[in-house]
Amino acid sequence: MRAVWQSYIFKRVRIHSCLTILMLWLSISTNAQTAADFSINKKEGCIPLSGVNFTDQSSGGTVTRRDWNLGNGTIINAGAATVGTNYLTDGKFYVTLTVTFSNGDIRTKRDSVIVHPRPVADFAADEETGCSPHRVNFTSLATTQTGTITEWLWDFGAGGSTQTDPSFTYNVNGEYNVSLIVKNNWNCESEAAIRLRYIKVYPKVNASFTIPDNADCAAPFTVNFVNTTTGGGVITYEWDFGDGSPKSTDANPTHTYTSTGAFTVTLTARNGSNCVSTYTTPSNSRVFVGKPQPAITAPSSVCANTSVNFSGSVTPADFLYSVKWLFPDNGAVQYGQNTSHTFTTPGTYNIAMVAFNYPQCNDTAWHTISVTPGPVAGFSSDKPLGCSTPFTVQFTDQSSPASGLTYDWNFGDGSPHDVNSSPSHTYTSFGAYTVSLTVTDPATGCAATKQLSNAVRIVKPRVDFTYTPPEGCKPLPVKATARLSDIVDPVTDYIWDFGDGTIITTSVDNATHTYTTAGTFNIKLTIVTQQGCTVSSDTKPVTVADICDDDGSGGGGGGGGGAGVMLGKTCADKYTVTFTDTVQDSQPISWDFGDGSPLYTTAPLNPVTHTFPTTAKKYLVTLTRRNTVTNIVSTAQFRAVIIDEKADFIPDIFNICINKTVNLATIGIDSSNINKYTWDFGDGTTPLMIDNKSYFRNYGKYLNGNTSHTYINNGVFHITLTIEDKLGCTHSFQYPVPVTVEGPVVGFEASPLTSCLKDFTVAFQDTSKPNGSTPIVEWTWNFGDGSPAFVTTRDTLLHHNYSNDTYYRFYNITLKIKDAAGCEAQVTRNNHVKSYRPKASFYSNDVLKCGNHTVTLYNNSSAYNATYIWYYGDGTSSTGYNGSRTYTADGEYDISLVVTDENGCRDSLAKEEYIKLVKPKADFIIGDDSKCAPIALQFFDNSDYANTYEWDFGDGGTGSTDKDPAAHIYAAPGFYQVKLKITGVSGCTDETTKTIRVKGPIGNLTVGAATGCIPFTLPMKVTGSNISSYAWDFGDGTPVQPSTESEVAHVYPLAGTYRPNVILTSPEGCPFTLKAPDPVIVDSAFAKYSIDRPIRCNLDRTVQFTNLSTSAFAPRTYKWLFGDNQESTDEAPVHTYNTPGKYDVTLIVFSRYGCSDTISSQPVVIYKQPEVRIFGDKEKCAKAQVDYRADVISEDAITDYTWKIDQSVVSRQDRFDHRFNTAGTYRLSLTVNTQYGCEETAEEPITIRPLPVPAASPKNTTICIGSPVSLQAHDGDRFSWWPNQWMSGANTDHPQVSPQQDMRYYVKVTNQYGCEELDSVDVHVDEKVNLQHSKDVIICKGERTRLSASGNTPDFVWTPALGLNNPNIASPVASPQQTTTYEVTGISHNTCPSETGRIKVTVGEIPTVDLGPDLTVEAGKSVTLQPVLSNDVVYYNWQPATGLSCINCATPRFIADKDITYRLTVRTQYQCEASDAINIKVACGKGAVYIPNAFTPNHDGKNDRFNIRGFGIQKVKSFRIYNRWGQLVFNRENFLPNDSNAGWDGRFNGQIAEGGTYVYITEVICNEGKPLVLKGTVILIR
């Protein structure tokens, strides 16, 4: 009050001073105007807008009176200069000040105050209860009367959000308060909308139960269920006992089963909409009530020794657990639902079936069976095995009794069964067959079966053979051995066909035959079995040569050598050979050694030794021998081959540097004669052996022996090649020129080789040694650190700087040197220079611990081969890779690690206060709490060493687990105990509690009954403390005014849901809103309905009623009164009235909360049926027009007419015309429909007379042109045919026609009823074939020609078919082997006959031509080609024409020049053609090269140049001419021979050379690639 008073005095002083100044001004101015004015301290704000002050600021005179109207009902007359008020409702309030001045002026000023509404916070959640983790989607339902919501502050109890419609997941079980505060764009804040324990999060329910006793063998059976379900919150249960009884919601129900069965019990447990668990009893844990009821299905009588099937069934089916069968005939006990049993002894037996369910309750069923004696089946066969088809087997019955039986044979091959007792059967296919015999005794019906698998096996033998050798020279003995499989019948004969006309039959599996003629022969083996089966093998070839090469190494053909001769050789004299005739019963007569020596006939002749000249290596040897048994003289020839290979080779280089390679190539060695090559490189390395023989055996080709070798040392080395030939003979050759290897020896030294520094320098000194006096001229250093290679030409000490950032790095040093001769050497020393930079590092997972004082330290240092020392900060230390220390007291400890690597380099790491052994301490800080409730209060963790948090905000809900939780909303004022519990390392805990005060009034709202019907009166009352005023808001728009009334009663005139609240204001000005705990529901009911067709026919008396009633809240219930003493409670009933009439309908509706209403608005009217008759003709002919009309009497308006004939609708008018197309009796009906659904039908029979059926025939016939045909019609008294062209008898029922083209004839037939009908026939006229074919033709044997035929047909047949590719087409291809006349028939496909023609195909023979074997001719020699030709050749053509004397003659000549192939093509008079080719190989020799001995370069055009000419020359490689002083006067290389411009023109250095004798040397290359060197002299004549 003092402060206010001082302010007032201050204002009075200021006003007095202003008035003084004003009076002075007025004394000066005589025209002053009075004006009203005032100021407002708060012109705009949110509800409640309190402390709004208005201050008079009128001017122009002295104010004597002030009247205030503040716009909210507050009126202050004669008020003070400053007034104030609180605005408790929103809106725009107009404030008026009326002032009265001392001069009598009255002035008014008007202004306004705007009060913005507070928004109303509200929200909803989609899932209020659930299991953790429980995700909840929140929806803001906040509203604001004006403006928009701009801010949302959510408190979920365990977190918060500022989103409009947030989602939040609750991970901890509990019951959470949820609050929401919103602001609108006026910055007006709502009260807090709070739901206490709104979100309930429980452990997930897990349904389970036990049944202490789940089985009884008799009903009824009472079962107790023990619920063992786990889970949080309110759990609801639903039991399904599996017997169709109502479900139970008890926790531990008891249920009585009254019927037999196995019942599956299911428990469904819920503790939230999304938390459901179901448990169903396993199969063997079901409830079992009663005993199983077994039943047996089996025949009543069976035959002995017959398997009988017993089928068991159990009722109920779930009781089928195990079944036991008891058979008294032999005491057998069998198990299983179904079984089989064979009775061996006749008699009558009672079979028992005992059925058990799972609890072993059981019952027994019995079945009586009579067993009568039965037959025994048996049989045998004469031939169970066969090797060919068809194969006939005789089967013999061995069944008992031996007579009086019937038989059923199944032979297993799909053929029909046989009913004879002992049948024979023929099999037509190979295979293994199961045969069964079923015998039946007709007297008893008993049957028996014997089935024998593989009773008959018919297998085709498989024939193959091996033989050796497959090739060789005559006489060639070959041995063949049979390889047989699938033999089921013994082999009696082996028939060997050796392909040369020799056939040998043996009883053993091998045969030997000697071939005495050359050729390729096919061997085939045929076997004959005991049953006469004959099977042949595929053929295999044997190749026999006339003459073979034999080098004495064992490769000759025939009997151990060429032509049965064995060669003996020695390495000492390779050209001397000893020949031994190895043929049995043979005596040599003479030897011709083929080397020009005389025929050798001097005894002894076996063996014989001969020395061949060295001029050749192959000689044709002829042996004449006499067979000492037959005295027949024969000759044998073979080529004796001399193996005389000489080692020779050439290196590609002779002077090399160290580490270079020499390539070695063999010269002039026939690799096919070599077993192995051995190279000695002369440098002490192991000789290289190349195994040529093995390589050829493995890969099929020979090696040439070439190789290479790398020399790694200096020196002079002689290379030697040693070869071993096929005879084991060796020859060595050392190359006369050695390989010289030169080069320096590289080396260096370095210091230091190790360092602990990041940057260090190493000195490198070259220690290389030169090769003799050849100096080293270049050094290339690579220091291994990625720097460029350093190249120098001076031998000097080098220093290289290294820099290393890693804990170790090893460097590879390379020095490469080169000397003045270009030889190089290089050395690399790996890991030569080493840099060490250890880096200490460690970590621990125990840096913060509570209660456990053992700490482990993990080493992650970077060091090479290091040792470690740990210092633990408490005076102790240890060694080892990792550290570990158990501390005895809490504290903070420094940890150090020292690392020393293998080079002694060291690093250390110290971490101060790294290990903290502490206990957690809970503490928190409270944010700004100066606001009134509702308040969003922030809490901040201030704990030490905390890992997890549990907040309890003291308002009853589960709190947050965040470190600094989202702002927590306190909706109500009061005192709250806030607790924080923390958990630190090692599970240690601590907690603290603080009391907070939320400002505002404290009250409690009680509300009366919350439901009722309009109008509804609601009482409400507030009890509490610290309350100065109450502002009641009933939620229905009633103005809100602050009052002092704590208890009110309000009337709601309209239906709806209302949420009343009251704003309490404390003396300190804090408002607080109390809301009714539940919404107020005011209900209403209004009855209304409609009727589907209230007026209708008596046939349709069932009426659908549609309910249109409404109420504020559903569901609703109804009561219908139908006016015929019938009622219904359905929402939309269907009601059937029994009789026509008028009925009043009443509907009474009841709302959800007990409100009701009644209505009777519309009656139901039911009409009677109409009467219907039909007028019209009742009899007509088919296809005649008939008129019908309706005659109807009805009290209801007719809407539809429906005419039907035999149920088919024909019209919908009251009359109609109709044509009946078919004779017969019809049912005509008329159905009439009225406006309101009445329907009536009248029917009449209609008779329709038949039309005649002409059945004109033939309906569609075909004739060959010019042929007649008779027509026929029926079913009439009169006939008329047209057109009458080509017709006779047009007015009869059978006229005759002979048309020349396709025609259609019509006939009209009239029957006894005078009815007429038309019909027609078609006569098709066929054309003839008109065959055409190709002319006679001439072809050559083996050629083809196409024949052709055409005509009015697509099909042709040619005969004979021999030689035709297809005898059934129009244009076959003919290739007959002899002249043939073919007949072709054009097949007619109509009524006309087929036609035939003939074509002759003349076949000419193919001529024969043989140019003989290929020729090798010396270059320049004249050769005449003389082919062998058949006598029918009339034409010759030689190609190419190159060098031939003629190309169209029989025997042309040519001069041998180069290799060439000539082909001769010949023809006969029929143009039949054949050809043959001959290869001419031209051998080049000195005689083929023509070099003149003189020339005259005088430019007369004759002998002006000295040239090289000749035949068989590929090129002239070099041509050099020297004068008598040895000067080279002419040189040319690589030019063609016979080039007149390529020779020497007689000039030397551009000048004319003097006459005289010159020496020439030339090397020419023959066409076959052979070099030829020629030397001689030539005279230059001037």
UniProtKB/TrEMBL annotation:
Membrane-topology descriptor: Multi-pass membrane protein
Compartments (UniProt record): Membrane
Pfam family, one: CHU_C
SMART domains: PKD
Domain of life, per lineage: Bacteria
GO molecular function, one term: monoatomic cation channel activity
PROSITE patterns noted in UniProt: PKD
One CC-aspect GO term: plasma membrane
The keyword Lipoprotein is annotated on this UniProt entry: no
Keywords: Membrane, Repeat, Signal, Transmembrane, Transmembrane helix
Domain annotation PKD: ranges: 52-115, 119-185, 218-281, 291-357, 392-448, 489-538, 677-746, 774-808, 838-904, 948-1005, 1023-1069, 1115-1154, 1201-1248
InterPro entries: Ig-like_fold, PKD/Chitinase_dom, PKD_dom, PKD_dom_sf, T9SS_type_B
GO BP: calcium ion transport
Signal peptide limits: 1-34
PANTHER family reported for this sequence: POLYCYSTIC KIDNEY DISEASE PROTEIN 1-LIKE 1, POLYCYSTIN-1
Entry-linked NCBIfam families: Bac_Flav_CTERM (TIGR04131)
Name this protein carries in UniProt: Gliding motility-associated-like protein
Species: Pseudobacter ginsenosidimutans
